[in-house]
Amino acid sequence: MEKELVAVIDFGGQYNQLVARRVRECNVYCEIYSYKTDLDKILERKPRGIILTGGPSSCYEEGAATCSPELFEQGIPVLGLCYGAQLMTHVLGGQVARAAVREYGKTEVDVDTTSRLFADVTPHTVCWMSHFDYIARMAPGFRAVAATANCPVAAAEWEERGLYAIQFHPEVLHTAQGSRMLYNFVRNICGCAGDWRMDSFVKENIKAIREKVGGGKVLCALSGGVDSSVAAVLLSRAVGSQLTCVFVDHGLLRKDEGDQVEAVFGPQGDYELNFIRVNAQKRFYDRLAGVSEPEQKRKIIGEEFIRVFEEEAKKIGAVDFLVQGTIYPDVVESGLGGESAVIKSHHNVGGLPSCVEFREIVEPLRNLFKDEVRKVGLELGIPEQLVFRQPFPGPGLGVRIMGEVTAGKVEMVQDADAIFREEISRAGLDRELNQYFAALTNMRSVGVMGDERTYDYAIALRAVNTVDFMTAEAAEIPWEVLKRVMSRIINEVRGVNRVLYDVSSKPPGTIEFE
Ligand code: XMP
């Protein structure tokens, strides 16, 4: 049986991977193609439906991203979203023009629930708008099936032809019933049965990796983080002993973390990874001695990491493929994504490749969001404690120790952090908070312990709630929990006589405390 596939044609909008993700949530497999891809190539894949995404251009301008009119004549249902809706209108003979009022943000919309697109959607609902052009006149054959105060054609359809155009963004969660609309398109209009699951992703990926890698030699930098762990295990399932994983312990990991990573991925673990642990703690501490400026510390850690990895790679010899655990948000943030515009350059992407000799990069998670990567991880049998690990920066505790980094300070912050994490789990807050950790301030102050005067460091506790890590709020941790953490840290961690709780949000603070 042919696999059910929905093709998403990317016109460069910001939400394109979200469209793909929502399709996957309907248990339908989907592939994303640039709008520049030959239509024949897409049709060869026999898609059950096609979705045209949003994009930054104006479809009536010369040189704007476009599509061939034949796309709409294949008897395959097509759904245009935002720019995709305008393009469909424009190509099929309607009129798109600059709107008098630019609509942006949550907007009330009336939908015609007799349209199959809006089955089971409430007639008056909220959608997410982001457009300056609008459909001034529908293409012949279409009827309007949704409207907002400023946008008379918020959606249009030509049911007999299976053509649907939506001006707003159903893929964005702010469109209250957007997932239902996409479900209606994919499952009801395209008629997909919805039998695709994450285990299919795993199987298909393993097959694709085998085809790509053949008998080649593969190298992976394993950090113990979720993404690189899932990528490594996928590769090991696909090509087994052709894979070597190098884990650099820079001495800036959390308490016992190096050993935990080794226990899972090393020779005693369940995976065939040719795991090499490099204990480079001393090298990093030596290079960090006397350095207190945060950016300089980051630079040193990054450079030293590459040097250590390079030395290891040399021992292994030339490899054919380098594995990277890049996930979709990294792709967008580094501006490497399909047709999407650059948003922010990311800390980790782009460091490694240049130092190792290899033929090609393998990025099996490139199209997935973090929670999807976690699902794949669980599917692969990776322990939950690793799959649900909270984010941890590449430079590790180097960015959680203010001022000079020394082995003694690393131990202090590791111990305090372990206590904090233990108490957070005990209080049942670990899955609720998005990130929490202890940092060591560079402040020493006078205290009294027993009958003695102390002059010791202050530990800062940080715990935040955030959706995208771009903005964050300090979490309101129960006072009782904070008091218990404080008391344990002061009693159990030598050299600390104060515990502070950071209540700053981001911005103006950052999540890390460096
Ligand atoms: P900030 O501190 O910028 O952090 O608010 C936002 C998120 O990014 C993580 N972070 C990093 N992650 N390498 C990483 O992989 C880094 O250099 C790095 N610096 C910050 C931070 O933990 C938070 O989740």
Tell me what you see in this structure.
- α5 crosses α11, α6 packs across α11 and α8 packs antiparallel against α9.
- 31% of the residues lie in helices and 24% in strands.
- The longest helix is centred in the middle third of the chain and has 23 residues.
- The protein is globular, with a radius of gyration of 26 Å.
- The strands form three sheets. It has a nine-stranded mixed beta sheet with strand order 2-1-3-4-9-8-7-5-6, sandwiched between helices. A five-stranded parallel beta sheet has the order 12-11-10-13-14, with helices on both faces.
- The chain starts with a strand and ends in a 13-residue tail after the last strand.
- With 514 residues, the protein is α/β, with parallel strands linked by helices.
- The chain folds into three domains: 185 residues, Rossmann fold; 190 residues, 3-Layer(aba) Sandwich (Rossmann fold), CATH 3.40.50.620; 102 residues, GMP Synthetase, Chain A, domain 3 (2-Layer Sandwich).
- It has 14 helices and 18 strands.
- Bound molecules: xanthosine-5'-monophosphate.
- Xanthosine-5'-monophosphate (XMP) binds next to loops.
In short:
This protein has 514 residues and is an alpha/beta fold. The chain is built from 14 helices and 18 strands.
**Which CATH architecture of the largest domain?**
3-Layer(aba) Sandwich
The main sheet comes to:
9 strands, mixed
| Low-pLDDT windows of residues | 335-350
Q: Domain count, please report it.
A: 3
At CATH level 3, the topology of the largest domain is Rossmann fold
How many strand elements? 18
According to CATH, what is the class of the largest domain? Alpha Beta
Q: Between the first and last Cα atoms, what is the distance in angstroms?
A: 55 Å
As a percent range, the share of helical residues equals 25-40%
Content of β-strand: 15-25%
The name of the CATH superfamily of the largest domain reads HUPs
**What coarse outline follows from CA principal-axis ratios?**
globular
The number of helical elements comes to 14
What is the SS-derived class? alpha/beta
Bound compounds, each kind once, are:
xanthosine-5'-monophosphate
